[in-house]
Amino acid sequence: MNRSMIQSAVTMGQLQSKLDLIGNNLSNSETTGYKSRSADFSSLLFQQIDNQSHEHAQVGRTTPEGVRIGAGARLGHTNLDYRQGSLQNTGRDLDVALLGDNHLFQLRVETETGPETQFTRAGNFYLNPIDNGQVLLTNSNGHPVIGADGENIVLEEGFQGISIDQDGSILVKRGDEQAVEGELSVTEAVRPRMLEAVGDNRFRIPDGINPDGIMEDLPRGDIEMKNKTLEASNVDVSKQMTDMLMAQRAYQFNAKSISTGDQMMGLVNQLRS
After folding, report:
1. What is the model's pLDDT at position 65?
2. Across the chain, where does the E strand assignment appear?
3. Which stretch of 166-175, 199-208, 221-230, 258-267 has the lowest confidence by average pLDDT?
4. Tens digit of pLDDT for each residue in 196-244?
5. Coil, helix or strand for 134?
6. What CA–CA distance (Å, rounded) separates 58 from 190?
7. If DSSP codes are grouped into helix, strand and coil, which group holds residue 220?
8. Spatial distance between the Cα atoms of 266 and 254, rounded to a whole number of angstroms
């Protein structure tokens, strides 16, 4: 197999990964609080081939000697776009959207190693009944929402109404009285690109990483929310379609390069015979 075929084969595998990433973005274009991802490519190791055999030909040359032949491209890393999505009014009392950049709700998620704090921008919350006539505030997947005191938000049943204020206070109406019976915990990702995506629109601090300097607690006065509203996905569908077409064209180009290289090798073999 010649060099061009190796380069094309390697690059095609990485382009397939980019197409998968674009497909994931498009499939989550309606997911509450979803942040789109983009792919960056980098060149693989290249070999320097020196083909300048005459010293007089090097006189006055300003470009590097020889030819650099690489081994294709690879998916260097993926970037998360943390820009805020559009706000959509739902009229639902337990829907709330964060207005601050890099602000995140905290969830308590059970993992194989025990409970773990994870983060999300999705503010569509629900009430799930638990023992002793109480209800637990959870996200759409049933994971408990962490309150400002670091504990799960548990409310006594028997209330006539519930809503979330703009500072994250949970207002519960019982009879003719309304009182604050819980507060949402909101934290700021100081270094959001250090967070690891774990699926279901959630993030976590990677193992072995010191959380200091990555996440920072927010004072109550710095928390901004909009109740009865959800933050939509920030996926730009038109841009994703454009990127998909470009990736497909690059994939087709590399596939054609492999078929052309195969044809050339066949012609050479025929000449030798």
Report:
1. 64
2. 37-43, 46-49, 67-70, 73-80, 87-89, 96-98, 103-111, 114-120, 126-130, 134-138, 154-156, 161-164, 169-174, 177-183, 186-189, 196-199, 202-204, 215-217, 225-227, 229-231
3. 258-267
4. 888 888 999 988 888 788 888 888 888 889 999 999 999 999 999 999 9
5. strand
6. 53
7. helix
8. 19
**Helix locations, the chain, DSSP H:** 3-27, 237-272
85 residue type, one letter: G
Give the C-alpha separation, 72 to 53, whole Å: 27
From the list 105, 94, 107, 103, the residue with the least C-alpha distance to 162 is: 94
pLDDT grade, residue 129 (50/70/90)? very high
- pLDDT tens across 52-107, in order? 566 665 666 666 666 666 666 767 677 888 888 999 999 999 999 999 888 999 99
Of 87, 89, 110, nearest to 33 by C-alpha is 87
Beta bridge partners of 115: 110
- Look up residue 197 and give its two tokens: 């995506």
The encoded tokens of residue 182 equal 């819980």
| CA-closest candidate to residue 93, choices 34, 60, 154, 137 | 137
Residue 3 tokens read as: 């060099």
pLDDT at 223: 87
Question: Tokens in use for 59?
Answer: 């006189």
Lookup: tokens for 239: 């841009």
Q: Can you say how many angstroms the Cα of residue 196 is from the centroid of all Cα atoms in its chain?
A: 8
The answer, yes or no, to whether residue 1 has pLDDT greater than 80, is: no
For residue 196, report the phi and psi dihedrals to the nearest 5 degrees. Answer: -105, 130
